[in-house]
Amino acid sequence: MNELVSIIVPVYNSQDFISRCLESLVRQSYSSIEILVIDDGSTDNSKNIIKKYLEKYKNIFYFYKENGGQASARNLGIDLSKGDYICFVDSDDIISLDFCKLMVEKAIKESADIVSCNIMEEIGDIKIIHSYKTKSNSKREFMIKLNSPCNLLIKKNIFKNSIIKFPIGYIFEDIAIIPALVLLANNVAHVDQPLYVYIRREDSTTGSKVFIKKHLDIIKAIDHLVNLFTQIDKKNEYYDEIEYIVVRRLLISGGMRLAKTKDGKQYLNLVANYMDKFPNWIQNQYVKSNLTKMQKIAGRLIYKRHFYIIYCLNRINSLFKKYI
Q1: What is the pTM of this model?
Q2: pLDDT band at 207 (very low <50, low <70, confident <90, very high)
Q3: DSSP track, 255-324
Q4: Do residues 307 and 293 lie in contact, with contact meaning Cβ atoms separated by under 8 Å?
Q5: What average pLDDT does range 193-215 have in this prediction?
Q6: What is the pLDDT of residue 206?
Q7: What share of the chain is helix, strand, coil (3-state, %, to 5)?
Protein backbone atom coordinates (compact mmCIF):
# COMPACT_ATOMS: atom_id res chain seq x y z
CA MET A 1 0.00 0.00 0.00
CA ASN A 2 1.35 3.42 -0.90
CA GLU A 3 -1.81 5.56 -0.77
CA LEU A 4 -0.91 8.87 0.86
CA VAL A 5 -2.86 9.81 3.98
CA SER A 6 -3.09 13.49 4.95
CA ILE A 7 -3.51 13.91 8.71
CA ILE A 8 -4.93 17.35 9.48
CA VAL A 9 -4.33 18.71 12.99
CA PRO A 10 -5.95 22.05 13.90
CA VAL A 11 -4.05 23.68 16.77
CA TYR A 12 -5.05 26.52 19.07
CA ASN A 13 -3.13 27.14 22.31
CA SER A 14 -2.30 23.45 22.65
CA GLN A 15 1.08 23.67 24.36
CA ASP A 16 0.10 21.24 27.11
CA PHE A 17 -0.87 18.34 24.86
CA ILE A 18 0.38 18.88 21.29
CA SER A 19 3.53 16.80 21.90
CA ARG A 20 1.53 13.72 22.91
CA CYS A 21 -0.65 14.15 19.84
CA LEU A 22 2.26 14.50 17.42
CA GLU A 23 4.09 11.54 18.97
CA SER A 24 1.15 9.32 18.11
CA LEU A 25 1.29 10.57 14.51
CA VAL A 26 5.01 10.36 13.77
CA ARG A 27 5.11 6.80 15.17
CA GLN A 28 2.43 5.45 12.83
CA SER A 29 3.15 1.96 11.50
CA TYR A 30 1.95 3.17 8.09
CA SER A 31 4.69 5.28 6.51
CA SER A 32 2.91 7.01 3.61
CA ILE A 33 1.53 9.96 5.55
CA GLU A 34 1.80 13.71 5.64
CA ILE A 35 0.98 15.63 8.82
CA LEU A 36 -0.51 19.08 8.26
CA VAL A 37 -0.45 21.16 11.46
CA ILE A 38 -2.74 24.16 11.06
CA ASP A 39 -2.03 26.75 13.76
CA ASP A 40 -5.23 28.75 14.20
CA GLY A 41 -3.57 31.83 15.69
CA SER A 42 -2.12 30.30 18.87
CA THR A 43 -0.74 32.77 21.43
CA ASP A 44 1.03 30.25 23.68
CA ASN A 45 4.14 28.12 23.14
CA SER A 46 2.52 25.72 20.66
CA LYS A 47 4.53 26.98 17.68
CA ASN A 48 7.91 26.42 19.36
CA ILE A 49 6.95 22.89 20.37
CA ILE A 50 5.81 22.11 16.83
CA LYS A 51 9.04 23.56 15.40
CA LYS A 52 11.04 20.87 17.19
CA TYR A 53 9.06 18.22 15.32
CA LEU A 54 9.51 20.08 12.02
CA GLU A 55 13.27 19.89 12.44
CA LYS A 56 13.15 16.16 13.09
CA TYR A 57 10.45 14.89 10.70
CA LYS A 58 10.25 15.74 7.01
CA ASN A 59 6.61 14.74 6.62
CA ILE A 60 5.30 17.36 9.06
CA PHE A 61 4.18 20.67 7.56
CA TYR A 62 3.27 23.74 9.61
CA PHE A 63 0.88 26.48 8.52
CA TYR A 64 -0.05 29.55 10.54
CA LYS A 65 -3.30 31.47 10.06
CA GLU A 66 -5.23 34.12 11.92
CA ASN A 67 -7.71 32.73 14.41
CA GLY A 68 -10.89 31.67 12.66
CA GLY A 69 -11.99 28.55 14.50
CA GLN A 70 -11.52 24.81 14.05
CA ALA A 71 -13.69 24.63 10.94
CA SER A 72 -11.57 27.17 9.06
CA ALA A 73 -8.40 25.33 10.09
CA ARG A 74 -9.80 22.02 8.84
CA ASN A 75 -10.87 23.60 5.55
CA LEU A 76 -7.39 25.04 5.01
CA GLY A 77 -5.90 21.63 5.74
CA ILE A 78 -8.16 20.03 3.15
CA ASP A 79 -7.11 22.61 0.55
CA LEU A 80 -3.40 22.09 1.28
CA SER A 81 -3.52 18.31 1.49
CA LYS A 82 -1.97 16.11 -1.18
CA GLY A 83 -3.19 12.76 0.08
CA ASP A 84 -5.51 10.20 -1.42
CA TYR A 85 -7.24 10.05 1.95
CA ILE A 86 -7.81 12.58 4.72
CA CYS A 87 -8.22 12.17 8.45
CA PHE A 88 -8.60 14.71 11.24
CA VAL A 89 -6.98 14.58 14.68
CA ASP A 90 -7.70 17.15 17.38
CA SER A 91 -4.55 18.50 18.99
CA ASP A 92 -5.48 17.23 22.47
CA ASP A 93 -6.23 13.69 21.27
CA ILE A 94 -4.12 10.78 20.03
CA ILE A 95 -4.54 7.87 17.62
CA SER A 96 -3.48 4.23 17.77
CA LEU A 97 -0.12 3.53 16.13
CA ASP A 98 -1.94 1.32 13.61
CA PHE A 99 -4.73 3.81 12.87
CA CYS A 100 -3.64 4.67 9.32
CA LYS A 101 -2.54 1.15 8.44
CA LEU A 102 -5.79 -0.54 9.48
CA MET A 103 -8.03 2.18 8.08
CA VAL A 104 -6.32 2.21 4.67
CA GLU A 105 -6.33 -1.59 4.53
CA LYS A 106 -10.07 -1.60 5.16
CA ALA A 107 -10.68 1.16 2.59
CA ILE A 108 -8.85 -0.80 -0.09
CA LYS A 109 -10.37 -4.16 0.81
CA GLU A 110 -13.95 -2.82 0.84
CA SER A 111 -13.46 -0.17 -1.91
CA ALA A 112 -14.74 2.29 0.67
CA ASP A 113 -14.63 6.09 0.38
CA ILE A 114 -15.22 6.45 4.13
CA VAL A 115 -13.97 4.15 6.88
CA SER A 116 -14.88 4.58 10.55
CA CYS A 117 -13.44 3.11 13.74
CA ASN A 118 -14.43 3.01 17.39
CA ILE A 119 -13.38 5.71 19.86
CA MET A 120 -11.82 5.29 23.27
CA GLU A 121 -12.72 8.15 25.59
CA GLU A 122 -10.28 8.86 28.42
CA ILE A 123 -11.53 10.76 31.46
CA GLY A 124 -8.58 10.71 33.83
CA ASP A 125 -8.02 7.04 34.63
CA ILE A 126 -11.43 6.04 33.28
CA LYS A 127 -11.58 4.61 29.76
CA ILE A 128 -14.83 4.18 27.83
CA ILE A 129 -15.10 2.57 24.40
CA HIS A 130 -17.71 4.01 22.05
CA SER A 131 -18.63 1.60 19.27
CA TYR A 132 -19.69 2.84 15.83
CA LYS A 133 -20.29 -0.59 14.38
CA THR A 134 -23.49 -0.86 12.35
CA LYS A 135 -25.55 -3.90 11.49
CA SER A 136 -25.14 -3.76 7.74
CA ASN A 137 -22.56 -1.05 6.88
CA SER A 138 -25.28 0.77 4.97
CA LYS A 139 -24.90 4.48 4.31
CA ARG A 140 -28.19 5.20 6.07
CA GLU A 141 -26.92 3.56 9.24
CA PHE A 142 -23.62 5.44 9.01
CA MET A 143 -25.47 8.76 8.68
CA ILE A 144 -27.32 8.38 11.96
CA LYS A 145 -24.43 6.73 13.83
CA LEU A 146 -21.43 8.97 13.18
CA ASN A 147 -20.80 12.06 15.33
CA SER A 148 -17.30 13.25 14.48
CA PRO A 149 -14.88 13.34 11.55
CA CYS A 150 -12.02 12.34 13.86
CA ASN A 151 -12.68 8.59 13.77
CA LEU A 152 -12.96 8.61 9.97
CA LEU A 153 -10.70 8.05 6.98
CA ILE A 154 -12.21 9.99 4.07
CA LYS A 155 -11.38 9.81 0.37
CA LYS A 156 -10.22 13.29 -0.58
CA ASN A 157 -12.20 13.24 -3.81
CA ILE A 158 -15.42 13.55 -1.79
CA PHE A 159 -14.32 17.03 -0.72
CA LYS A 160 -12.66 17.84 -4.04
CA ASN A 161 -15.70 16.97 -6.16
CA SER A 162 -18.40 18.51 -3.98
CA ILE A 163 -19.58 21.74 -2.36
CA ILE A 164 -18.98 20.37 1.14
CA LYS A 165 -16.86 22.41 3.55
CA PHE A 166 -16.90 22.69 7.31
CA PRO A 167 -19.20 25.67 8.06
CA ILE A 168 -17.39 28.51 9.81
CA GLY A 169 -18.58 30.53 12.78
CA TYR A 170 -20.17 28.02 15.12
CA ILE A 171 -19.53 24.72 16.88
CA PHE A 172 -21.20 21.43 15.96
CA GLU A 173 -19.95 21.90 12.42
CA ASP A 174 -19.52 18.11 12.36
CA ILE A 175 -23.28 17.57 12.45
CA ALA A 176 -23.61 19.93 9.52
CA ILE A 177 -21.59 17.88 7.03
CA ILE A 178 -20.88 14.27 8.09
CA PRO A 179 -24.21 12.84 6.87
CA ALA A 180 -23.69 14.62 3.54
CA LEU A 181 -20.16 13.18 3.23
CA VAL A 182 -21.57 9.70 3.84
CA LEU A 183 -24.26 10.33 1.23
CA LEU A 184 -21.62 11.13 -1.42
CA ALA A 185 -19.45 8.10 -0.59
CA ASN A 186 -19.63 5.20 -3.03
CA ASN A 187 -19.17 2.75 -0.18
CA VAL A 188 -18.54 2.81 3.58
CA ALA A 189 -16.79 0.41 5.96
CA HIS A 190 -15.87 0.04 9.62
CA VAL A 191 -12.86 -1.14 11.63
CA ASP A 192 -14.23 -2.56 14.87
CA GLN A 193 -11.36 -1.36 17.06
CA PRO A 194 -10.90 1.80 19.22
CA LEU A 195 -8.21 3.41 17.08
CA TYR A 196 -9.00 7.02 18.02
CA VAL A 197 -8.47 8.20 21.60
CA TYR A 198 -10.54 11.17 22.72
CA ILE A 199 -9.06 12.87 25.79
CA ARG A 200 -11.78 14.62 27.77
CA ARG A 201 -10.31 17.51 29.72
CA GLU A 202 -11.81 18.87 32.92
CA ASP A 203 -11.99 22.54 31.88
CA SER A 204 -15.55 22.11 30.62
CA THR A 205 -17.86 25.11 30.44
CA THR A 206 -20.95 22.95 31.04
CA GLY A 207 -23.68 24.92 32.77
CA SER A 208 -22.24 28.33 31.96
CA LYS A 209 -23.90 30.94 29.79
CA VAL A 210 -21.18 30.39 27.20
CA PHE A 211 -22.02 26.68 27.16
CA ILE A 212 -25.72 27.39 26.64
CA LYS A 213 -25.09 29.87 23.85
CA LYS A 214 -22.74 27.46 22.06
CA HIS A 215 -25.24 24.63 22.20
CA LEU A 216 -27.70 26.75 20.31
CA ASP A 217 -25.28 26.38 17.42
CA ILE A 218 -26.82 22.92 16.95
CA ILE A 219 -29.78 24.65 15.31
CA LYS A 220 -27.47 26.43 12.85
CA ALA A 221 -25.65 23.17 12.12
CA ILE A 222 -28.88 21.30 11.46
CA ASP A 223 -30.11 24.07 9.17
CA HIS A 224 -26.83 23.78 7.26
CA LEU A 225 -27.29 20.01 6.97
CA VAL A 226 -30.86 20.32 5.71
CA ASN A 227 -29.74 22.91 3.16
CA LEU A 228 -26.95 20.62 1.94
CA PHE A 229 -29.35 17.74 1.37
CA THR A 230 -31.72 20.12 -0.38
CA GLN A 231 -28.93 21.32 -2.71
CA ILE A 232 -27.97 17.72 -3.46
CA ASP A 233 -31.69 17.03 -4.04
CA LYS A 234 -31.76 14.21 -1.48
CA LYS A 235 -33.77 15.77 1.37
CA ASN A 236 -36.97 13.85 0.71
CA GLU A 237 -35.19 10.56 0.05
CA TYR A 238 -33.32 10.78 3.37
CA TYR A 239 -35.97 12.59 5.40
CA ASP A 240 -36.14 9.86 8.08
CA GLU A 241 -32.37 10.01 8.65
CA ILE A 242 -32.34 13.81 8.83
CA GLU A 243 -35.31 13.83 11.20
CA TYR A 244 -33.66 11.29 13.49
CA ILE A 245 -30.43 13.31 13.59
CA VAL A 246 -32.49 16.37 14.59
CA VAL A 247 -34.23 14.39 17.35
CA ARG A 248 -31.11 12.75 18.74
CA ARG A 249 -28.71 15.66 18.55
CA LEU A 250 -31.00 18.66 19.10
CA LEU A 251 -34.05 17.50 21.05
CA ILE A 252 -32.48 14.77 23.21
CA SER A 253 -28.75 15.51 23.56
CA GLY A 254 -28.87 19.29 23.17
CA GLY A 255 -32.15 19.68 25.03
CA MET A 256 -31.05 17.73 28.09
CA ARG A 257 -27.81 19.69 28.30
CA LEU A 258 -29.62 23.00 28.05
CA ALA A 259 -32.02 21.83 30.75
CA LYS A 260 -29.25 21.56 33.33
CA THR A 261 -29.83 25.17 34.36
CA LYS A 262 -33.01 27.12 35.00
CA ASP A 263 -31.63 29.82 32.71
CA GLY A 264 -31.94 27.29 29.91
CA LYS A 265 -35.72 27.57 29.78
CA GLN A 266 -35.69 30.25 27.09
CA TYR A 267 -33.26 28.19 25.03
CA LEU A 268 -35.29 25.02 25.44
CA ASN A 269 -38.21 26.96 24.03
CA LEU A 270 -36.12 27.63 20.90
CA VAL A 271 -35.40 23.90 20.64
CA ALA A 272 -39.09 23.06 20.98
CA ASN A 273 -40.01 25.69 18.39
CA TYR A 274 -37.53 24.20 15.92
CA MET A 275 -38.96 20.74 16.49
CA ASP A 276 -42.31 22.05 15.24
CA LYS A 277 -40.77 21.56 11.78
CA PHE A 278 -40.82 17.82 12.52
CA PRO A 279 -44.23 17.32 14.18
CA ASN A 280 -44.34 13.56 13.61
CA TRP A 281 -40.88 12.82 14.95
CA ILE A 282 -42.14 10.30 17.52
CA GLN A 283 -43.22 8.06 14.60
CA ASN A 284 -39.75 8.05 13.06
CA GLN A 285 -38.52 4.48 12.49
CA TYR A 286 -35.13 5.17 14.08
CA VAL A 287 -36.68 6.91 17.09
CA LYS A 288 -38.82 3.83 17.68
CA SER A 289 -35.93 1.36 17.38
CA ASN A 290 -32.88 3.28 18.68
CA LEU A 291 -34.01 5.56 21.51
CA THR A 292 -34.60 4.31 25.03
CA LYS A 293 -37.94 4.73 26.75
CA MET A 294 -36.50 7.47 28.97
CA GLN A 295 -35.08 9.33 25.97
CA LYS A 296 -38.50 9.28 24.30
CA ILE A 297 -40.13 10.57 27.48
CA ALA A 298 -37.56 13.37 27.79
CA GLY A 299 -38.07 14.28 24.15
CA ARG A 300 -41.83 14.46 24.59
CA LEU A 301 -41.49 16.63 27.73
CA ILE A 302 -39.25 19.13 25.93
CA TYR A 303 -41.41 19.12 22.81
CA LYS A 304 -44.53 19.75 24.94
CA ARG A 305 -42.69 22.59 26.74
CA HIS A 306 -42.72 20.89 30.18
CA PHE A 307 -39.33 22.43 30.90
CA TYR A 308 -39.52 22.52 34.70
CA ILE A 309 -40.16 18.77 34.88
CA ILE A 310 -37.08 18.20 32.74
CA TYR A 311 -35.02 20.48 34.99
CA CYS A 312 -36.18 18.60 38.12
CA LEU A 313 -35.42 15.22 36.55
CA ASN A 314 -31.92 16.43 35.70
CA ARG A 315 -31.37 17.59 39.27
CA ILE A 316 -32.59 14.29 40.71
CA ASN A 317 -30.32 12.39 38.32
CA SER A 318 -27.32 14.54 39.33
CA LEU A 319 -27.98 13.98 43.03
CA PHE A 320 -28.41 10.26 42.45
CA LYS A 321 -25.02 10.05 40.74
CA LYS A 322 -23.40 12.10 43.49
CA TYR A 323 -24.60 10.14 46.51
CA ILE A 324 -25.16 6.62 45.22
Answers
A1: 0.92
A2: very low
A3: HHHHTTSGGGHHHHHHHHHHHTTSTTGGG-HHHHHHS-HHHHHHHHHHHTT-HHHHHHHHHHHHHHHHH-
A4: no
A5: 70
A6: 42
A7: 50, 15, 35
